[in-house]
Every structure is written in structure tokens, then in C-alpha cells.
């Protein structure tokens, strides 16, 4: 198989979808690997490392798309890439289709095969290619939230963990999945008062058992969320419905109950966001203010820590990529039901129901 790894061109996206180690394994098995020049620099891998692993370096993104049967990426294609994707070309990356109708329509038009990292399932129903980046994003949400609570950054001016004699910040985490548990652990470790909300009672029981004493679990409802808004310092949106648009748990009207200088970090923004006032931002311009509340809504948060993120991501994605390379995508999906669930758009047709539902298609 001919596999291409282009350089990511989304704002401040420094991750890369293939490491030199992955290239070496593919080349040893007889596959051809094309890597765009500079693709790995942001993650600490120069072109020479890829050449030593047997990859061929190509100068432009156009060259990589034109020569490759399979494209492996980190983030969804952006508008300038849409016309580079060919009919029957296989694209393996995060897509998050439900949050972008233009992307969905472009991939339908291309008649390519789009397999999304975020909807691949393990036998136990977990999402193995979403987990590593969710772990990074959950931890980063607290780092960034603590940073933007500082007065010079526009926040209320509170130290997350407080000090002796001064109470700590209050953090509300919406969602008890991977992002939520990582955010709660980080916030608790820094000494914050943490409230973790979810609608799954079994999950709440488990989290109550394993998380520190300064994390309180609460059933998620509009009433219970509203009760916390007037005294919360930091809210982390960590809601996930696999492949579908996230529901709005905090509306614009509810936001008015929060204090000026409080902060929201919506990790769900790449699936439309679970806070109505959120919209995707970039690492270059990460925040905006609505009704006095500072919003941090960077859609590729793990891209800020590319060394950690690239290794965590490729550790998870590479075994699946190897199956695809060895068998072809159709046979690989036939043999692996969890991988098949990653198929979202195939030759002009949406094949993943939550994406179709998001746009009434």
C-alpha cells in the first residue's frame, strides 16, 4: 500500500500522524510511505529521521495527496485540502463530522472513504483512538483554566488550589468520561473544590469510589447545574456522544448567572460544544468573553503539547493503520467490527447514523 502523511496545516497543529518508528515498521512490511517535508518537526522528528526509517520525503502537500492511496492525518482536512482528496482515496484521521456540515459535504462530494478515529470502537464499547487525546485534553483543560483564572489573563484572579486560610477555586466538570475524570483528577490534585456531573449513576458510583475526597459527584440536570453557576470559578465541558453533536448543557441565558471573570473550557467544542456560547478558537487566539465569562474553546488543545500527544496518539492508531495497510480497508473492516464503526463517509454516502442525524441527511 502507498501511505501518505501530510504536514498538518490547522492553526498551531504540531502533531504528526506517523512517527519514524511507524514508518520503519510499514516499510519493512513492503509498504511505501510518503511524508511531507517538515511534517514531524513540531513533534521533534526531522526529515532525516523519516528518511532513515525508509520513508520518501515529498516537498508539498499536493504531492503527498496525489501519490498516496491512503492518507493518515491527525486533524480533519480543512478547506484548502478538500480538492486534494480523490475518489476512492482512503483518509484515516479525526473528522468530527457532526460539527461541520461543509466538511461533511466536501467529503461526500470527493467520493473518498473516510474512517474517523473518534468512532472506532473496542470490544468493550470504548473509543480507543479518542481516549489518548481525551486524556491529554482533560488534563490540559485544568492547566488552561487555572491560567486564565489569573487576573492578567482576564480571569477573576483566584488560585485554583487556594492557600491556608483562603478557600480554593470551585471547579465544575460536566461529564464523567475520559476527559471528565482526567480534568477532575488534575483539579483535585491542585487542591480545588471539584464537582463532577454525569447522568450515568453507575459511572457516578465508580467515580465517587476512585476519586479524591475533594471531588463530589452530582447527578447532571439543568436544576443542579444552575445551582452551581453563581459560585463556580471554572467550568469544564467534557460531554461526548460518540460521533454526534454535543448537547447544550449551559445555555446563553444560564451563562448570565455566572460571575464576571469566571472561566469555561469547552473540550467538546470539536463536536459542537456543550456550552451554547462556545465556538471553536485557535491556539493563536484562544479566548473570547461573553457576558463577562471568559471562554477557552481551542478545538485542537493537544496540539499545544505535540511531543506527548503524537506519541500517545500513534501508540493507539498505528495497530489499526497496520491492519488497513496489510489487508486493505475493506478486508480490515470486515475482520474488525470495531474498526468498521469508524467508517463515516464511503464513496459519497454517509454510513454513520449520528452524522446523518446531525444534518437531517
Task: Please describe the topology of this protein.
Layout: E1 2-5, H1 20-28, E2 32-36, H2 47-52, E3 56-58, H3 61-67, E4 70-72, H4 79-82, E5 90-93, H5 101-110, E6 113-116, H6 131-148, E7 170-174, H7 178-189, E8 193-198, H8 201-210, E9 215-219, H9 222-229, E10 234-237, H10 252-255, E11 263-266, E12 287-290, E13 293-296, H11 306-327, H12 329-335, H13 337-340, E14 343-346, E15 349-350, H14 353-359
Parallel strand pairs: 1-2, 1-4, 2-3, 4-5, 5-6, 7-8, 7-10, 8-9, 10-11, 11-13
Antiparallel strand pairs: 6-14, 12-13, 14-15
Helix pairs in contact: 6-7, 11-12
The CATH topology name of the largest domain reads: Rossmann fold
Strand content: 15-25%
Mean pLDDT score: 95
CATH superfamily of the largest domain: NAD(P)-binding Rossmann-like Domain
Shape: globular
Low-confidence stretches: none
Strand order of the largest sheet: 3-2-1-4-5-6-14-15
Helix content: 25-40%
Provide the CATH architecture of the largest domain: 3-Layer(aba) Sandwich
Q: Please give the largest β-sheet.
A: 8 strands, mixed
Cα end-to-end separation: 33 Å
Write a structural description.
- With 361 residues, the protein is of the alpha/beta class.
- The chain folds into two domains: 2-120 and 306-359, Rossmann fold (3-Layer(aba) Sandwich), CATH 3.40.50.720; 131-304, Rossmann fold, CATH 3.40.50.
- 35% of the residues lie in helices and 17% in strands.
- The protein has helices at 20-28, 47-52, 61-67, 79-82, 101-110, 131-148, 178-189, 201-210, 222-229, 252-255, 306-327, 329-335, 337-340, 353-359; strands at 2-5, 32-36, 56-58, 70-72, 90-93, 113-116, 170-174, 193-198, 215-219, 234-237, 263-266, 287-290, 293-296, 343-346, 349-350.
- Strands 3-2-1-4-5-6-14-15 form an eight-stranded mixed beta sheet, with helices on both faces. A seven-stranded mixed beta sheet has the order 9-8-7-10-11-13-12, sandwiched between helices.
- Helix 6 packs across helix 7 and helix 11 packs across helix 12 (329-335).
- The protein starts with a strand and ends with a helix.
- 50% of the residues are buried.
- The model has no long low-confidence stretch (mean pLDDT 95).
